[in-house]
Design goal:
Strand order of the largest sheet: 10-11-12-13-1-2-5-7-8-9-14
Number of strands: 14
Distance between the termini: 28 Å
Radius of gyration: 18 Å
Order of helices and strands: EEHEEHEEEEEEEEEHHE
Structural class: alpha+beta
Number of helices: 4
Strand content: 35-45%
Length: 257
């Protein structure tokens, strides 16, 4: 069932993460949608939410994957290319919607289950402010189910922030159960030190037009707020004297494991 998730997002940069030992932390509230791909394919319709057409809230295929293939076909191909045959069940996409046709998604998550509804893989789809996109496929090497207390590691190969180099690795943790969402992403630099800690957590509720209207009034133009906050925090880091680096070229692969 499609859901809306009131989410508290938290970012913290420890004092030892950059030259000058400057610490920076902030949090903000947004709301994400949890969209089962099967439900979208069979016709997910709400008065204030549409698929591939204008509405107060909408989802457009072009905003995800390769921007050309339907979400269902794209994620199935991605799982197949990564050899994750165990994830043959439901796929739920957690993402920001378009609001009045505008969206910027720093990261969306494709939760990929088996037929027994055990989480087998999560694809983290990352966008930067330069219009580039890269995906990290998170799964255990032996393809066993992902438990709520498991940490999954991927090497960082995609540029997101000019204040952090493209090196080191991420550790992801996912808990999507009992009516709540919790996702943690920790970034460790080349020396293995924790350089950024991120989390997003919140309760889940059925996706209805009254709830969408409530959240629109509570968080108007939320997707515009996200991109404004990104640039605001960048200015703060710059003024704190944290080293600013050039943008490297994007990775040549669409998905890394």
């Amino acid at each position: 069932m499609a859901e809306i998730i009131k989410t508290r997002v938290f970012h913290a940069r420890p004092a030892n993460a950059a030259k000058g030992t400057k610490r920076n932390a902030f949090h903000y509230s947004v709301f994400y949608l949890a969209l089962p791909l099967v439900e979208m394919k069979t016709g997910l319709k709400r008065l204030l939410f549409s698929i591939n057409r204008f509405n107060l809230f909408s989802f457009h295929d072009v905003d995800h994957g390769d921007g050309k293939t339907s979400p269902e076909r794209w994620i199935r191909r991605a799982l197949d290319d990564c050899g994750i045959v165990e994830a043959d069940g439901e796929v739920v996409l957690i993402t920001l919607p378009r609001v009045l046709s505008y969206v910027f998604n720093p990261v969306s998550f494709w939760l990929c289950y088996d037929r027994a509804h055990r989480l087998r893989a999560v694809l983290a789809e990352v966008n930067n402010t330069f219009g580039e996109r890269h995906c990290y496929m998170c799964a255990h090497p032996d393809r066993r189910p992902i438990a709520a207390d498991d940490w999954l590691r991927t090497e960082k190969i995609f540029h997101v922030s000019p204040f952090m180099t493209v090196e080191g690795h991420y550790k992801f943790r996912f808990a999507y159960e009992a009516g709540d969402l919790a996702i943690w992403i920790n970034y460790y630099n080349a020396s293995g030190a924790l350089a950024l800690s991120t989390s997003m957590m919140g309760p889940r509720a059925p996706l209805t037009s009254p709830r969408l209207l409530f959240y629109f009034l509570r968080y108007p133009l939320v997707t515009l707020q996200v991109i404004v906050l990104i640039h605001y925090q960048a200015v703060k880091l710059f003024l704190k004297g944290i080293q600013f680096g050039p943008k490297p070229p994007p990775p040549t692969v669409e998905i890394s494991q």
